[in-house]
């Protein structure tokens, strides 16, 4: 042994310093062998044992040593087959294991083994693990009575994978479930789900008895000892983890505490989360364009019921570098155009700006439920189990910098978006839109819960177009119609806004309208105001008044216009168009050319009239469809297609919304009236043209009442409230009613003047209190006017001298006209089986009616110069995504996620953000942008003309009938009976619409019943039904042409059409 030691000593002098650890390990092994030999010799002398039995006892002792219930027997050699213990276990015992190591070899792994000190040695305190993964409380001193057995190591986790539950907690691969966020040194990579990987992590073999068996003496100032860390406690003294309020010795409350510098400004990585590692890859361009097929995240892949096609396993990214009008001409293709082309029957457009994830998921989940209904119609000739292949959903985001981050997380959770692959430039060409294509099989509801095939969700073909710049909603529709629509050539296009929740069958009813009638070019659904949970939203007067307004519009206005065949506006929140009807003619003129004309209007190239008209470009599109040359398209209202949307619940948002609506509607109505002669160039029948002219007369009357609404309101208040100044009608006596009238009269005049000043110099968001108090004052004036009307009616009914018959008296002019208007509202609401708004919202609407006139209308007319959409200054190209530069020919070099775990980390981050829902700061308000002097000047001229016209009317009528009684006031009679007459006209149109729909439903039911009977009896074969052939081996009970021949005699609109499916 001496010679061996000498040899090793010579070897040590000749070796490098780094080999000392291995030499020491050899010395320790030799010493152990010698010790074992001496022990065996002594045992053999005292108790002779056969050689075979000795080997067996050694093996038995090795097994006992590894048992957690046994301790090491003296005299045994320290052979260890364990993996290296955790650094926290504080063991320097060398490892003899053949298992693979989880880290590189270290000098500490081969440190010499020394016997532990005795218990009476005061120079060393062994390391003890705390009771919990948290640090010990600074206020509690160390107790010497505690032993190492009090701090048992927690058992190793046997759960090798995360629980497979996307909606539960903990979520797959999150540090909060597998790796405690408080444990130091926890790995940042998320764990993969169980179905994709096999194998397991070796079980730890540490036991309570072997934790401190190889401890060595450590210096008191060793930083790895229990008291060697001089850093202050990370936990706050006021946190839940502390048991007292005693400050530790390292904290001085009288001195200024310096932490770790100011808070970082940029986004910081979350503890336990792994950021995607970006590496450079060479990608070959396709026809000079950047098109990538990206794998979907592993967690999403593990939950997919279908993985048999690339559309389910890969997301396709396309960087579009051209204008939407050149999308097809430049050779761009969508997945539906690649391989075996798919027919697109229904193309759904969802436009969004900066809406949050709740609004987005409410709309998207509603759409996916509707698509599931299409696929559930197994007996349909158009739809069925694979009907989802005929439907494409296109989401268009207006501006990459404007989209809400949580909305992107929701899209990423569905597999329709991945970070890190989009680029600003491709071959030095600026990217105008980022297009992501994927067929998703999961949906997120408004509670951010995943829904899959178990809830009836079917695959949905998704196109997510994220525009690089904010170019307003009209440009988004140009991408939809001129780029993607031209590539897919769909039959029907449906437009939705983010925030609108379509009904379970709303999209089907819209599509069925086009299938029944081939002359329908557009259809509008019923928009319902969101009333909140339990209708608690109706406690807000603004919400209640808008609920009443929406309901009466859907009961009186839309049905009337549908009967005539021309609906003035198809709401962008829920409407549908036939794609072929939108196309331009061979000269380039048509509905779409006029629709997108407003996008190119700038400066003095367009007058204020044209600019404001295109604020309601959907109204222009409706008119161009009906008045299209050599065509006979009509527009329909579909009451069964419902959609719920949130309405403004605050005054500033309410005023700003109505400013664009009122201006656009007013100028679009003027445009259609000035161009009514275009109807004679269409192929409409003579009866249709007559009906359209009747509708034009009705619109002209409505337009006149809108223009003079300010004067009419003042005159109605002046005459009715002023009637109480008469001593015969004064309910208070002593001329109190006269003084109240004088006060309210001047208050009304001053409020109107103040309204003009506010509207021309302030934004609603900056003067919301003044706008609010003015609306409250108008409510008081309206309440007093209503009180005066009721009092006059009561006086008339009690006075025996006043006639109670129809004629030229107060009873007829005031009571009958008013009762007719309100009574028709109740009657039509009951006829449509929807009367609840009359009891819950009518009072709020009539109270706010003066505000609709004096606040909304004044603000709209005073801001006719404001035709911007907030896109000015967004024409600077962004470079934060990186560039795709050509390297060799069509090969480009990109930075993108390097491996599957990088894709998984982005998906895990999206799920975590949706779960935690960390508040995203709202973007700051931009300063008001300077407007052109030309627009401001024309705005001033228009407001002056409008104000003078209303002032002349109010002064002339008030002077002419100021001293006369209400019974002899001709103008008041005209106003009251005109309102009643318009209400009666709307009620007649609404009743006609209801009758036509009833006849339609009865005939459909009859045809369906007869078709069933024929299929049971086997008869049919060429049988005639209402002049149509009924045979050829098929059942076409739903034929729109069959219905047309019977309904045309009653219906003023054409029902002719062809049946394409059910």
UniProtKB/TrEMBL annotation:
Q: Where is the composition biased (Polar residues)?
A: 144-160
Question: Which keywords appear in this protein's UniProt record, sorted alphabetically?
Answer: Cell membrane, Glycosyltransferase, Membrane, Transferase, Transmembrane, Transmembrane helix
The region called Disordered is annotated at 40-200, 214-237
Establish whether keyword Ribonucleoprotein is in the entry: no
TM spans, by residue?
Answer: 700-724, 736-758, 770-794, 814-833, 941-962, 974-996
Q: Record's Gene Ontology CC terms?
A: cell septum; plasma membrane
PANTHER family for this protein? CHITIN SYNTHASE, CHITIN SYNTHASE 2
Name of the molecule in the record? chitin synthase
Q: What is the lineage of its organism?
A: Eukaryota, Fungi, Dikarya, Ascomycota, Pezizomycotina
The gene designation is CHS2
């Amino acid at each position: 042994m001496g010679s061996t030691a000498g040899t090793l000593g010579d070897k040590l002098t000749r070796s490098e310093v780094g080999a000392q650890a291995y030499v020491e390990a050899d010395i320790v092994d030799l010493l152990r062998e010698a010790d074992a030999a001496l022990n065996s010799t002594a045992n053999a002398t005292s108790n002779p044992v056969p050689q075979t039995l000795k080997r067996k006892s050694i093996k038995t002792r090795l097994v006992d040593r590894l048992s957690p219930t046994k301790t090491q027997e003296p005299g045994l050699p320290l052979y260890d087959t364990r993996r290296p213990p955790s650094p926290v276990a504080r063991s320097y015992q060398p490892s003899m294991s053949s298992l693979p190591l989880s880290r590189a070899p270290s000098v500490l792994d081969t440190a010499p083994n020394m016997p532990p000190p005795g218990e009476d040695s005061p120079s060393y305190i062994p390391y003890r693990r705390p009771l919990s993964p948290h640090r010990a409380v600074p206020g509690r001193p160390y107790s010497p009575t505690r032993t190492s057995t009090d701090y048992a190591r927690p058992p190793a986790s046997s759960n090798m994978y995360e629980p497979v539950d996307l909606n539960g907690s903990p979520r797959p691969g999150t540090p909060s479930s597998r790796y405690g966020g408080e444990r130091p040194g926890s790995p940042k990579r998320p764990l993969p789900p169980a179905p994709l990987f096999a194998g397991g992590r070796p079980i730890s073999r540490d036991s309570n008895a072997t934790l401190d068996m190889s401890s060595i003496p450590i210096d008191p100032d060793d930083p790895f000892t229990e008291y060697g860390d001089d850093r202050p406690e990370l936990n706050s003294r006021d946190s839940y983890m502390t048991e007292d309020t005693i400050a530790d010795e390292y904290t001085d409350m009288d001195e200024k505490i310096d932490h770790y510098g100011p808070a970082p400004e940029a986004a910081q990585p979350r503890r336990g989360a792994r950021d995607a590692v970006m590496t450079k890859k060479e990608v070959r361009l396709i026809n000079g364009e950047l098109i990538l097929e990206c794998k979907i995240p592993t967690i999403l892949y593990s939950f997919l019921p279908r993985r048999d096609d690339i559309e389910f396993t890969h997301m396709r990214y396309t960087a579009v570098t051209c204008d939407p009008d050149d999308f097809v001409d430049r050779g761009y293709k969508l997945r539906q155009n690649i391989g075996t082309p798919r027919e697109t029957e229904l193309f759904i457009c969802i436009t969004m700006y900066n809406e949050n994830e709740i609004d987005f998921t409410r709309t998207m989940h509603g759409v996916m439920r509707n698509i599931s209904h299409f696929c559930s119609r197994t007996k349909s000739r158009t739809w069925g189990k694979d009907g989802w292949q005929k439907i494409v959903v296109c989401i268009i985001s207006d501006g990459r910098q404007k989209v809400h981050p949580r909305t992107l997380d929701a899209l990423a959770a569905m597999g329709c978006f991945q970070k890190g692959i989009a680029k600003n430039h491709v071959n030095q060409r600026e990217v105008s839109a980022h297009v992501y294509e994927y067929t998703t099989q999961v949906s997120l509801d408004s509670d951010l819960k995943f829904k899959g095939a178990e809830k009836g969700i079917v695959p949905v073909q998704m196109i997510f177009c994220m525009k690089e710049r904010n170019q307003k909603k009209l440009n988004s529709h140009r991408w939809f119609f001129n780029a993607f629509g031209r590539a897919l050539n769909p039959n029907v296009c449906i437009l939705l806004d983010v925030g609108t929740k379509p009904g379970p069958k709303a999209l089907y009813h819209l599509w069925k309208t086009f299938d029944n009638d081939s002359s329908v070019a557009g259809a509008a659904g019923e928009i319902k105001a969101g009333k909140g949970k339990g209708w608690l939203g109706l406690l807000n007067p603004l919400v209640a008044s808008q609920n009443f307004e929406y309901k009466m519009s859907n009961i009186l206005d839309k049905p009337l216009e549908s009967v005539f065949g021309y609906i003035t506006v198809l709401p962008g929140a829920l409407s549908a168009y036939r794609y072929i009807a939108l196309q331009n003619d061979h000269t380039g003129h048509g509905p779409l050319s006029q629709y997108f004309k407003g996008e190119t209007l700038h400066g003095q190239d367009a007058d204020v009239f044209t600019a404001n008209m295109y604020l309601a470009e959907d109204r222009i599109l409706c008119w161009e469809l009906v008045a299209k040359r050599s065509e006979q398209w009509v527009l329909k209202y579909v009451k069964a297609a419902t959609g719920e949307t949130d309405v403004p619940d605050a005054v500033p948002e309410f005023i700003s919304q109505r400013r664009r609506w009122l201006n656009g509607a007013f100028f679009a109505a003027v445009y259609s009236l000035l161009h009514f002669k275009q109807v004679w160039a269409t192929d409409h029948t003579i009866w249709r043209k007559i009906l359209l002219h009747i509708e034009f007369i009705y619109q002209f009357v409505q337009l006149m009442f809108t223009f003079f609404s300010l004067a009419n309101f003042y005159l109605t208040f002046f005459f009715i409230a002023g009637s109480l100044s008469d001593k015969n009608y004064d309910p208070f006596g002593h001329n109190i009613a006269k003084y109240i009238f004088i006060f309210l009269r001047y208050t009304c005049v001053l409020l109107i003047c103040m309204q003009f000043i506010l509207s021309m110099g302030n934004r609603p968001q900056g003067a919301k209190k003044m706008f609010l108090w003015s609306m409250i004052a108008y409510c008081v004036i309206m309440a007093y006017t209503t009180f005066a009307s009721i009092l006059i009616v009561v006086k008339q009914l009690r006075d025996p001298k006043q006639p109670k018959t129809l004629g030229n008296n107060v009873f007829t002019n005031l009571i009958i006209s008013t009762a007719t208007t309100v009574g028709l509202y109740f009657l039509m609401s009951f006829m449509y089986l929807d009367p609840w708004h009359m009891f819950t919202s009518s009072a709020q609407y009539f109270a706010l009616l003066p505000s609709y006139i004096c606040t909304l209308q004044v603000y709209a007319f005073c801001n006719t110069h404001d035709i911007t959409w907030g896109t000015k200054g967004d024409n600077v190209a962004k470079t934060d995504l990186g560039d795709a530069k050509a390297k060799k020919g069509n090969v480009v070099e990109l930075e993108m996620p390097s491996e599957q775990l990088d894709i998984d980390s982005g998906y895990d981050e999206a799920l975590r953000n949706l779960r935690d829902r960390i508040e995203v700061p709202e973007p700051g308000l931009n300063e008001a942008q300077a407007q052109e002097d030309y627009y401001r000047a024309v705005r001033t001229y228009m407001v002056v003309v409008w104000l003078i016209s209303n002032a002349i009317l109010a002064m002339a009528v008030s002077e002419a009938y100021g001293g006369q009684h209400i019974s002899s006031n001709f103008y008041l009679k005209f106003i009251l009976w005109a309102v009643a007459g318009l209400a009666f006209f709307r009620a007649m149109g609404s009743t006609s619409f209801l009758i036509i729909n009833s006849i339609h439903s009865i005939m459909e039911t009859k045809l369906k019943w007869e078709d069933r009977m024929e299929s049971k009896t086997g008869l049919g074969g060429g049988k005639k039904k209402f002049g149509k052939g009924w045979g050829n081996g098929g059942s076409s009970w739903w034929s729109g042409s069959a219905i047309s021949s019977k309904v045309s005699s009653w219906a003023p609109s054409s029902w002719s059409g062809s049946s394409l499916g059910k």
